[in-house]
Amino acid sequence: MLQLLGRWLECVPNFSEGRDRAKIESIASAARALGAYVLNIHSDPDHNRSVVTLAAPADQIVEAVMSMIRRAVELLDIRHHVGVHPRIGVVDVVPFVPLGAATQEDSVKAAIEVASRVGNELEVPVYLYEWAARHPEYRALPDVRRLYSQAILAGNFLEPDFGPFMPHPTAGACVVGARGPLIAFNCVLGTPDVSVARRIAFRIRESSGGMLGVRALGLWLESLGLAQVSMNIVDPVKAPLHVVFERVKQLAAQEGTYVVSSELVGLMPSSVALGAASYALGLPSLSFSQLVEMSILSRRSEVNLEEFLDSLASSAPTPGGGAASALVGAIAAALSSMVANLTIGKKKYMQFEEDMRKVVASCGELRSSLLQLMHDDEEAYNALMNAFRLPKDTEEQVAARNAEIQKALIGACEVPLTIAQKCMEVLELSEYVAGNGNANAVSDAGVSALMAEAAARGALLNVYINCNLMKDSTQADGYRRRAEEIESTARSKASEVMAIVRSRINGG
Fold it and tell me: Are 428 and 348 within one domain?
């Protein structure tokens, strides 16, 4: 598949926020607005961390990443952050990875430019690591975190590569670098004893004599009441994913427990997935050419609307109503943008020109966000279905399965709520262009409003149905109240916009 790319870079910034979806989405939208592809967002409330995977041409990605970092520094405050994952700032680590025809030098160049600008423009101290490291002791990310923490505890400050010689008051510090592919992979154990996870982590990580290319920690997951082995596989060739997984299972069995489930954080190279499938199925000759979807994608680089509609019309459970609502919301945003663009440059509407340009920019962000939410909705539903498929043969398995279901239900409510909220933003913009935009396009503003209302209310149906499965009645009632408030507001706002539209159509 790499032949489909030119000189592209992947960037996987880690943000110290995994609970407030609105903030996470705002940060991701900052990259989408500048044309980057946000491929995945993985948020974990126990880690209180979000890992965003984005990609763009090498000559475009820096601005997108800088926009995300600025947004994160504005929204997040490290002083109030609580989570089990190590971090040194609100933008904890920003690695660049070469894709396609891009080189190691391309990724290092991007890392240094971002590091310099974060340090100088945002006044956040930055440390360069891996391929971009200027100091041998900063090469490995865990070493940077360790040295930074030791210096802070000693009342000193670790010398940064860029930026001030003190932490930013709310953003802390940041690590930026360039590296090869990394797989973030976690295994949840069937025990609440975090010391078991720590012993397994000690035995499996390279630094303590374990597997080459593996870094590991033992963590406690409050939401599940279970321990987790959290791993970074920094060399998937030396440490194939399936080999790492089997080793964790083996060590867990020696500790008298088992692996309840595993978790991929972000994305992984397709070759790794193929290797794992080849091992599991006993098919050493398995190749991409034998995978129908990959065969198709090798001939086509885009998925079109017709294909989405075909998928929607099929018997497959995804995409469903949530994804469809997000698409309709994106179309509504595009219509409001069209009205604004038809207004810009017209002498009759010069007083509204500046605001119309802002409308166009906002609509662009909303379109990107809603298109991403189409995929997020599918992922949230699949996560819920995967939780229902977990084993339930023992009391421990039942407890773990129930915990995973309840965790997945939160995502299955949060995503459609976010879709509805974005659609409400579209409604607000449709009201403005309906009242002040080009009168010849006022009917299009009306269509935008009606579609945004329908999309918002459609997404909220998923909230209502998933609330019914929640065991925490207080939590379920909270989601219902939020949904009902949005639905009521959507109804009234759409009516107001339509009154404006009809008045202007009738010469008012």
Answer: yes
Each residue's pLDDT tens digit, 17-73: 999 988 999 999 999 888 888 988 989 898 899 999 999 888 889 999 999 999 999
CATH number, domain with residue 217:
3.30.70.670
Of the pLDDT bands very low, low, confident and very high (cuts 50, 70, 90), residue 508 is: low
Amino acid 85 reads H
Domain assignment present for 305: no
Kindly report the length of the chain. 508
- Output the 3-class SS for 283-302: CCCCCHHHCHHHHHHCCCCC
List the structure tokens of 48.
């209180």
Helix (H) or strand (E) holding 54: strand 49-57
Distances (CA, A) of 392 to 255, 276, 387, 419: 21, 25, 11, 33
pLDDT in tens, 238-292: 888 999 999 999 999 999 999 999 998 877 777 778 778 888 888 766 766 676 6
For residue 248, the surrounding DSSP H or E stretch is helix 241-254
Same domain for 227 and 170 = no
What range does the domain containing 82 cover?
2-178
First-to-last C-alpha distance (Å) of the chain: 56
CA distance 436 to 339: 10
% of the chain residues with pLDDT over 90: 63
Domain check: are 346 and 364 in the same one?
Answer: yes
Three-class SS state of 341 = helix
- State the pairing for strand pair 126-130/49-57: unpaired
In the set 47, 81, 85, 168, the catalytic residue is 85
Rounded Cα gap, residues 306 and 329, in angstroms: 18
85 is catalytic: yes
Amino acid identity of residue 352, one-letter, is F
Confidence band (pLDDT; 50, 70, 90) for 84? confident
Domain count along the chain: 3
Any domain includes 303: no
DSSP secondary structure code for residue 207 in this structure:
G
Residue 376 has pLDDT above 70, yes or no: yes
For residue 102 the two structure tokens come to: 């891009």
Residues 488 and 343 in one domain: yes
